[in-house]
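[job 4471] stage=fold_predict status=RUNNING
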Amino acid sequence: MLVVGAHSADFVWRAAGAVAKHTSRGGEALVVALSYGERGESGELWKDPDQTVENVKRIRHAEAATAAAAVGARFEPFDLGDYPLRVGDEHIDRLAALIRDFAPHTVLTHPDTDPFNPDHPAAHAAVALSRQLTAGAGVASGFHTVAPSEFLAFEPHQPELCGFVPTVFVDITDVMPAKREAMAAMGAQSYLREYYTQRAEHRANHARKVTGNKAIQYAEAFQRLIPNVVDAL
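[job 4471] inference complete, writing structure tokens
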């Protein structure tokens, strides 16, 4: 599983449960942060009048690495800067090379729309292009390719305004302690912990209605960006 966020904490709020579920079953997970979110996603840290960008990056790196470890994942930063996040051709090449090397079965990232955050659509565009380049349209190509992965968007902060429609719910009840631990590591955005705990409860309510499984207490929502293929219905 590969999770690519615009900022270092994005994976924690939106997909830490799915990552923990994957790794708890023996899967390998890699979390990539295209930026640390040092300018626009680290408000608590900037309350220090003597704060510096480099120190914020250092703190955010430590937080994200700790959070990733809590859910059994590796963390890799690109450090491209935020607000705005600018992903150049050389960064697309780097991300595509990473995908070819890691060959994930599943890729998670942001939806392509966010009216409040310019970095999230930029991250989506970069991931979508890199994934397309590494898969080579699923046919023989004149360059090294890997098998096409499943491609899903994780839930944005304001789903309705981002055109996000859930098509997959992941029951994260048994790994919610790991997600809580990951969220606790993100001190720069501690105000989001309660919100995303409540969001997991809301999505569990929806998942219970879909399945009738009353044991689901926490869930995360995702939207498939390409169809999945099954042997039968």
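[job 4471] summary: The mean pLDDT is 96.
[job 4471] exit 0
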